TrEMBL record:
SUPFAM superfamilies: Glyceraldehyde-3-phosphate dehydrogenase-like, C-terminal domain (SSF55347), NAD(P)-binding Rossmann-fold domains (SSF51735). GO terms for molecular function: nucleotide binding. Residues 6-125 form the Gfo/Idh/MocA-like oxidoreductase N-terminal domain. InterPro entries: Gfo/Idh/MocA-like_OxRdtase_N, Gfo/Idh/MocA_Oxidoreductases, GFO_IDH_MocA-like_dom, NAD(P)-bd_dom_sf. Gene3D superfamilies: Dihydrodipicolinate Reductase, domain 2, NAD(P)-binding Rossmann-like Domain. Signal peptide: none annotated. It comes from Gluconacetobacter takamatsuzukensis. This is Gfo/Idh/MocA family oxidoreductase. Pfam families: GFO_IDH_MocA (PF01408), GFO_IDH_MocA_C3 (PF22725). Residues 135-251 form the GFO/IDH/MocA-like oxidoreductase domain.
Amino acid sequence: MKNSLGWGLIGASNVAREWIVDAIRAQRGNHIRTVLSRDAARGAAFAQACDIPASTTDLDDILRDPMVDAVYVSTENALHHDQVLAAARAGKHVLCEKPLALSVHDAQEMVDACRAAGVVMATNHHLRCSALHIALHEHLKAGAIGRLNAVRVFHANFLAMMGGWRLNDAGGGVFLDSTIHDVDTLRFHLDADPTDVFAMAQSGRRGAAGVEDGIMAVLRFPDDVLVQIHGAYSVPFAPGGISFFGEKGVLVGRDCMSQRPAGTLALRDGDGERDIPLVHHNLYHFALRRFTQAVAGEGRPAATGEDGVASLAIVLALKEAARTGRQIRVGAT
């Protein structure tokens, strides 16, 4: 098993440009061979800007390249399914953006195909890679606040750009773009899936009519733990945060729901509030290191394909709850 990987980028996306290219190159021996875009000019400009040797509009150019060991998929959501299946058939390891697909069936099919092909599949859920969330998880597991009662997630911000898939009906909206990260983070911290969910959504502030640009959700996790999530594209100047309320105290993460290595973590109890020391690191460097190690047979990715399926199933249940005005039993048909 090799520790260095040749990569193909399937999608000339902003997240690839801003975060993933650097994170791949931060892993010893890893390199990027080519980038795919259906727009040839965009692909060529991306390759030049990121010092990537080649660009293409043909997926087969990447999948037939024997020097490409792994692919990062960050195309439009509706394209992930077929591209990941093709990568699995070609024997390429896969790091795929969330949501894996637009249906649980398609997402599970992607995971099954990668498993059958013997390749590693991971989902790009970055928040569980944060030093703050890792420390928070450790304190929860150590019983720092006792039995958990409730959790509050605040992940509402302002989306300045008015175009793009996030604000239209091509698989966009807060649920699939942002809340899905919150759901994955909750699964990471609670080591469980919710049993029931309910949500309300608003639209028309930043997105197209009918595409949610603000949501409020309530989820019930095992042991009767209640969770509240506020997500939005229309709330400027608001720091993201997460709070865990236990029988003995509260763990408070502030400014910690973004891609940046930032935020503070504090414990509040009968002795007052005190900061928990953190050593921040780049979230994507951490994720790519875990992915590269998994390809080498050392452990698992930070967020697996199975994690991606689970977060998608839960967020689609939340969308259904918002659409119907009903509480939805997760996993129920």
